[in-house]
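Example: protein-glutamate methylesterase.
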Amino acid sequence: MSASALARHFDAIVIGASAGGVAALRDVLGALPADLPVPVLIVIHLPRDRPSSISEVLDGDCALPVREAIDKQPLLPGTVTFAPPDYHLLVEDRDTLALSVDEPVLFSRPAIDPLFESAADTFGERLLAVLLTGASSDGSQGVAAVREHGGTAWIQQPADAVAPLMPASALAHAGADAVLTLDALCQRLAEFHP
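Written out as structure tokens, the predicted fold is:
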């Protein structure tokens, strides 16, 4: 699928990461084009008991605005939105995000599975999910949900990840539409133009 075809095929991108994820996300966000026509929603495992500066830290690496999610905020194209500490980030509908204090998933809140599952319910085959480095199996159920709803899942090659457990677990549980090094994944995203 060509880059322009990719841009026409997806209405949203969701990304999950954990251990080693800040460095990986710096590369991924740096690759996103300034004219990306879809929203990007990200969960990285964060300590639940203190504020996070992740959106400020990574804002300078990205051509798009980077912000922390607020409950019931509009889902905006061309914007990168992070889950805040101690809240799950959910896609409520095609226009709205929601925050949840439901139980942690695999000891994490925010967790990747709730974001991926809610986005899959909303966007179906028009969703691209990207799972990066991490040291838990969070994301495996979410990748399965994305693929069951006809969406596309790209997973970082476990041997390329700082922490291979998360991508390896998702691959074993749900498979993937592409297994990519971080460099290859960033190259694909960089070509993602309208």
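The two ends are 14 Å apart (CA to CA).
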